[in-house]
Specification:
- With 374 residues, this protein is α/β, with parallel strands linked by helices.
- It is built from 13 helices and 17 strands.
- Among the domains are: 140 residues, NAD(P)-binding Rossmann-like Domain (Rossmann fold), CATH 3.40.50.720; 87 residues, no CATH class.
- A hairpin with a 5-residue loop joins strand 3 and strand 4.
- The chain starts with a strand and ends with a helix.
- The structure holds flavin-adenine dinucleotide (FAD) and uridine-5'-diphosphate.
- Uridine-5'-diphosphate (UDP) binds next to helix 5 and helix 6.
């Protein structure tokens, strides 16, 4: 008899398994239908001995000292600040857009102060940015939008930016300074020995049993448990009874090249040419020295493993119906990016899982009757 069946060994499931086992002495069965732990953050050494991320580049960044401290219990870190170039008009330009991007693109020599005024002049007047198109043209105008955002977004989501929530493109800022880092969070680092090693350490506890290649529907037939924590797609838990929630997928095409480096930055984005959105070269992220180098191309698709919830009003509406069902399902908690249909980064999922753990701890401090009400 287990106290918890946790479905999914990604960040959401693994953090909860670790907390419940070590802090509350709970017996946890953690299952995943994949043959490995780590969820979409899983990394491994490929046939050439290069550390690669099976489900696309994962760069850790957070503003939260609490989340960074928590993960630091399971890994040391390699300081790493991510930088990206965008291929536009036959040039490789710093991205997110900053002063140098605009100067190199148009052959100008503006200072950061001049750039502030420039952005104000070229921005379109948008009262309330509702869509991703509004969010970008309202900050940096139509031409930069067309060159850097419109087609990338159409490829990535199969939708025009005008059909997506403002928050999607607003993940990427535009800067009137020379900061060419992708993220500005206080903590930016990669797990020194990779994500998978970090997960293995998190789950190495006598109260945690890990079952791989194990769909929870099969597991449930064979074991008994008191409570479930579910981190898979919320619609499939309810057999898609209100219809499928859209998730975007990606085909990853890996290549290894017989040279030290393939491209001049960790990631090159291709907003306009090619069917792929970006190429990532892992050695920049991992710091590995090797005479060869592995890269991954990302081809977004509608079919395949669910990777991204698609933030737009009709999907939020459909999710609300599933959430109402989830809230009314006793003894099951829904946690994580797919189960709560939120475009969350890794640190946000860790934060969400730690918050759910505090709820469980709070409820367990009450008597059984109070706990049911909590
Ligand atoms: P997941 O990692 O998806 O884990 C859910 C698990 O549930 C999966 O392993 C799945 O196999 C399992 N599962 C599903 N159904 C079942 C079932 N029926 N039975 C058993 N198991 C089941 N975040 C960042 O912070 N930085 C980045 O640079 C970054 N880059 C990303 C790049 C890509 C291409 C993608 C797709 C995501 C990226 N993310 C990044 C987001 C990050 O991957 C997620 O925030 C995080 O991995 C979500 O963790 P999770 O536990 O919620 O879900
Ligand atoms: N985006 C874009 N051009 C780019 C990079 C990003 O238009 O060169 C938009 C696109 O809609 C993308 C969103 O900004 O989906 C968020 O980008 P981010 O790099 O955060 O995406 P992720 O790493 O989550 O795939």
């Amino acid at each position: 008899m287990f106290d918890h069946l946790i479905v999914g060994a990604g960040f959401a499931g693994s953090v909860l398994a670790e907390r419940l086992a070590t802090q509350l002495g709970r017996r946890v069965l953690l299952c995943d239908k994949r043959p490995h732990v780590g969820g979409n953050a899983y990394d491994h050494y490929d046939d050439h001995g290069l550390l690669v991320h099976k489900y696309g580049p994962h760069i850790f960044h957070t503003e939260s000292p609490k989340i960074f401290r928590y993960l630091s219990e399971f890994t040391s870190w390699r300081p790493y600040e991510h930088r990206v170039l965008a291929s536009v008009d036959d040039k490789l330009l710093p991205f997110p857009i900053n002063v140098d991007t605009v100067n190199k693109l148009y052959g100008l020599h503006m200072s950061p102060e001049e750039m502030e005024g420039y952005f104000k002049r070229i921005a379109e007047p948008i009262q309330h940015a509702r869509t991703s198109e509004d969010a970008v043209v309202g900050k940096i105008g139509r031409d930069l939008y067309e060159k850097f955002f419109r087609n990338y977004t159409r490829k990535q989501w199969g939708l025009d930016p005008s059909q997506l929530d403002a928050a999607v493109a607003a993940r990427v800022p535009a800067r009137a300074n020379r900061d060419d880092r992708y993220f500005t969070d206080e903590f930016q680092a990669m797990p020194l020995h990779g994500y998978t090693r970090m997960f293995e350490r998190m789950l190495d506890h006598k109260n945690i049993t890990v079952a791989l290649n194990a769909d929870y529907r099969d597991v449930m037939r064979e074991v008994s448990f008191k409570e479930m924590i579910y981190t898979g797609p919320v619609d499939s838990f309810f057999d898609c009874r209100f219809g499928k929630l859209p998730y975007r997928s990606i085909d990853f095409k890996f290549e290894t090249h017989d040279r030290e480096f393939f491209q001049p930055a960790a990631v090159v984005n291709y907003p306009n040419e090619h069917a792929y959105t970006r190429i990532t070269e892992f050695k920049y992220l991992t710091g590995q020295s090797h005479r060869k180098t592995s890269v991954v191309y990302e081809y977004p698709t509608a079919e395949g493993d669910p990777y991204y919830p698609v933030p737009r009003p009709e999907n939020a509406e459909l999710y609300r119906r599933y959430k109402a069902l989830a809230d009314a399902t006793p003894d099951v908690r829904f946690v994580g990016r797919l189960a709560t249909y939120k475009y969350y980064n890794m640190d946000q999922v860790v934060g969400q899982a730690l918050a759910v753990f505090e709820q469980i701890r709070g409820a367990s401090a009450l008597g059984p009757d109070d706990a049911r009400a909590a």
